[in-house]
Design a protein that fits this description.
- The chain is an alpha/beta fold.
- Helix content is about 45%, strand content about 15%.
- A seven-stranded parallel β-sheet has the order 3-2-1-4-5-6-7, sandwiched between helices.
- Strand 4, helix 5 and strand 5 form a beta-alpha-beta unit.
- Helix 5 packs parallel to helix 6.
Length: about 260
């Protein structure tokens, strides 16, 4: 099998949580461009349906499932709809996440709970349901979106809950990988640095931060959502069949410093 064949996702069935915008949208496009049919999971119906239409224009099947990954019943419904529509699940990207900036001493406990519940608890519950589909198949690829904030204090902004949640995701990647590889289920993660998502570019309170970040990064810019695509296709494909429990850093050299 040549490398192009190894990277092909032709005939695979996939889902992406948080697939309606930003990094999730690019991941959804990447999987479809590599040959997979992709379910778009999001709480924003309008954005997600646009991505579904974009996937169909690529020539792949797609449909939208509205799900809040903080809600167990929504995750259960997501899994049921995937099986009903696709009949199987080969690739799952647990990408949905939020952040909350501010000094730790002033952090409201409700904000802490909101970030941890969505980023960490929600990602775990999704993976648990996905694995229950994949284990009987004896095959599956589960990919988590983590962050370089999982392993460094990502100055100058402070977001303690976000960093803690992403550190937990890094541990999930390793722990679940060791547990599930015997079933043919591969678990890995991507750890992006700062990315020029629509949210980052359009948020007025981030304009000054973006200038600072651009100076900090050795590459002197942030990343673009499209620059995440190749890493995800690699982890979703047979090219990564000896890659188990790995968190792949994509950060323009930031963590080299």
């Amino acid at each position: 099998m040549n490398v192009i064949q190894q990277l092909s996702l032709e005939g695979k069935k996939a889902l992406v949580t948080g697939g309606g915008s930003g990094i999730g949208r690019s991941i959804t496009h990447a999987l479809a461009e590599a040959g997979a049919d992709v379910a778009v999971i999001d709480i924003n119906t309008e954005l997600a349906k646009k991505v579904v239409d974009e996937v169909k224009k690529i020539g792949r099947e797609s449909f939208f499932i509205r799900a809040d990954v903080c809600k167990y019943e929504d995750i259960e419904n997501m899994a049921n709809e995937i099986v009903k529509t696709f009949g199987r699940l080969d690739i799952a990207v647990n990408n949905a996440g939020i952040s909350c900036r501010g000094n730790a001493e002033n952090l409201d406990i409700d904000d802490w709970d909101r970030v941890i519940n969505l980023n960490l608890r929600g990602s775990f519950l999704c993976a648990q349901k996905e694995a229950k589909i994949m284990i009987p198949q004896k095959y599956g690829k589960i990919i988590f979106t983590s962050s370089i904030s999982s392993s460094i204090i990502n100055i100058p902004q402070f977001h303690i809950a976000y960093g803690a949640s992403k550190a937990g995701i890094d541990h999930l990647v390793k722990g679940l990988a060791v547990e599930w590889i015997k079933h043919g289920v591969y678990v890995n993660g991507i750890n992006p640095g700062a990315i020029y998502t629509p949210f980052v570019k359009n948020a007025k309170d981030l304009k000054d931060l973006i200038k600072i970040w651009e100076e900090y990064y050795p590459i002197k810019r942030l990343g673009y959502p499209e620059e995440i695509k190749g890493a995800v296709v690699y982890l979703a494909s047979d090219a990564s069949n000896f890659t188990v429990g790995h968190n792949l850093v994509i950060d323009g050299g930031y963590t080299c410093l």
